[in-house]
Amino acid sequence: MQCSFCGAAYEGPYCPVCGRGAGGNVVAAAVVPAFVCARCGVPFFGPACPACGTPVGGPMASTEASALTGIRATGSVFWTFGMISYLALLVANLVAFAYTANLIVQGALAGGPRYIDLYVLAPFAVGETYDVSAEVFLAYFLLIVIGIVLSYVWFGVRDGRATARTFTRPLADFRSRMESRSAWVATGQVFLASLFFQFAFILLLAAAGFEPETPGFVVPVPDWYQYFALANASVYEEFVARWLFIGVPLALIAVLLRGRLPADAPAEWRHLFGGTLTRVSPRPLLLTAAILVPASSVVFGLAHVPAWGWWKFLPAMVAGLGMGYLFVRHGFLAGVMFHFATDYLGALAILAGDGLAAQILLGLFILVLFGFGAFFLVGYGFYAVRLHRHFAGTLPPESPPAPAPVPVAGPVPTAV
């Protein structure tokens, strides 16, 4: 029955919510309910919940809930270990960079080579290579160091607490982990998913009988210059691929739309640095980003073709999509962190050299990264579906629907 006073459904002589009797006019002492529904949480008497029909003990509901909770908890465990492996890579890369930076400085002072490539993407690299003095080379390298170190410091200060909160959420709260606002989390997830995609793609090529080759330098260069080239790519390629192809056009569009965007929209100049868009951002800016991010990723993929061959286009384009997303969502430095994690993994391989133990340890670690990457790639597949549903429901035409016709009321009978 339903309580005539508070509307709660119940069985028994008294309402378990307000304590009123069946007649609704006699107040009794509040009765402690015998059971609480495992599915909907309604307190009740009797053999089953009067609200949803779940029997006492909720065997069906508890089984379903336990299974779902178990799946989410398992996902949270995988997520935690995957993120720990990514953070361990960032630490290893930073330690390696501190060591190799000293080698780079010594090599530049010892006589070179001191080549600096300055180019734009059109879509292939168009520019010049300059052989500069030690002072110019080291000044340029200092800018690269600042960009890489700043990405660690900036996100450490800005997102440190958000990252810690994400790690300490209940195990069943898997979705909050995957959709964390922390740039550390976002770059880790995108990096691992992209890394696995490239690994799986290379395996498919190998199964088809094609063996991808890694490009080398036109002229032999010492190891220290390779370390410089990897660090340089982490920052410079973000400038020519994300800043020029996403940040600048997005800022210009924001200027053109001045006065038609909400008052709380980010200032136009902030789009140059990225990190200004979320799923609830103004529609014109979201649509602009939806064009610029894929376009920049295609350019980024094509830019790798001359040196690597056409097999590199698809993996580089997918990585470009990830870095484009990180740019608009978390900013320029998020792309730098992603790029540095990717490229200086190669530096770790160079540092391992011919040491068998170091090669085995690094190889096992990379396999672990690949395994977690598969997990995050699947996770982003589900996330993409949810994102599609979100925008499909929130991006209809802005004009309001035509009002439904109002039926004409007939004559109202009057009492005689």
List keywords for this structure.
elongated, 10 helices, disordered C terminus, 61% helix, two-stranded antiparallel ribbon, 4 strands, 416 residues, mainly alpha
How do you describe this structure in short?
The protein is 61% helix and 4% strand. The protein has 416 residues and is mostly helical.
Detail the topology: elements first, then pairings.
Elements: E1 35-36, E2 43-44, H1 59-110, E3 115-121, E4 125-131, H2 134-167, H3 174-178, H4 183-207, H5 223-256, H6 283-303, H7 305-308, H8 313-330, H9 332-352, H10 356-394
Structural class per helix/strand content? Answer: mainly alpha
Number of helices: 10
Q: Which shape, going by the Cα principal axes?
A: elongated
The percentage helix is 55-70%
* Radius of gyration, whole Å: 29 Å
Major β-sheet, in short?
A: 2 strands, antiparallel
Order of helices and strands: EEHEEHHHHHHHHH
Biggest sheet strand order reads 1-2
Overall average pLDDT: 85
Beta strands, count: 4
Q: Approximately what portion of the residues adopt beta-strand conformation?
A: under 5%
End-to-end distance = 40 Å
Name the poorly predicted regions: 26-31, 396-401, 412-416
Give structural notes:
This protein is mostly helical and 416 residues long. 61% of the residues lie in helices and 4% in strands. The chain has 10 helices and 4 strands, in the order E-E-H-E-E-H-H-H-H-H-H-H-H-H. The strands form 2 sheets. A two-stranded antiparallel sheet has the order 1-2. A hairpin with a 6-residue loop joins strand 1 (35-36) and strand 2 (43-44). Helix 2 packs across helix 5 and helix 5 (223-256) crosses helix 8. The radius of gyration is 29 Å and the shape is elongated.
